[in-house]
Amino acid sequence: MNGHPAVEPTGPTAAPPASRVLALRGATQAASNDPHEIVRATTELLRELVTRNALDPADLISIWFTASPDLTAAYPARAAREMGFVDVPLMCASEIDVPGGSPRAVRVLIHTHSARPRAEAAHVYLHGAASLRPDLVTGAPAGSAEA
Ligand SMILES: C=C(O[C@@H]1C=C(C(=O)O)C=C[C@H]1O)C(=O)O
User: Fold this and answer.
1) Is 81 one of the catalytic residues?
2) Measured distance CA(45)–CA(28) in Å, rounded
3) Which ligand 1 atom minimizes the distance to the CA of 136?
4) How far apart are CA 93 and CA 41, in angstroms?
5) I need a surface site. Which of 13, 32, 54, 93 has the fewest CB within 10 A?
């Protein structure tokens, strides 16, 4: 051996990691299967996630979207690109067509670097999608879309 420890020291004296990975969920409901409405609803959802979690766009790792099978007029990822997330890997897919599933639903899963612990993640469910996960719907801050 060369005298150096094989691994970085751990325990109370070790420096905290500069950054952790945080996953955030969200969902919303578009007014209709129209490109403008899909982009509008998705933009609102992304803005709320960014605001409520104080996200720095430079920290974003990737963004996954699903659209319910009745939404076919546009890719929700378009909203992210139009917001300036042009170098963030994006993906869209069709949601599972479960009987009774939420209509016109855009769902999102964001992975980001963040110092925020998972317990403090603010997941965002807007409009008709709020009924999907009532356990995750928290009070919206002043000035939010729901106000
Ligand atoms: C309930 C939701 O819809 C679907 C069901 C999920 C679940 O059961 O955990 C997760 C994502 C969606 O596929 C949601 O978007 O949160």
Assistant:
1) yes
2) 7
3) 16
4) 17
5) 13
Residue 20 known to be catalytic: no
What does the pLDDT read at residue 13? Answer: 59
- Return the domain boundaries, the chain: 20-131
CA of 26 from ligand 1 middle (Å) equals: 10
Question: Which CATH fold would you assign to the domain 20-131?
Answer: 60s Ribosomal Protein L30; Chain: A; (3.30.1330)
Handedness of CA 6, 11, 13, 17 (dihedral sign): positive
Convert the pLDDT of each residue in 18-55 to its tens digit.
Answer: 579 999 999 999 999 999 999 999 999 999 999 999 99
Q: How far is CA 65 from CA 4, 92, 100, in A?
A: 45, 5, 20
Nearest residue (by CA) to ligand 1, atom 3, is 132
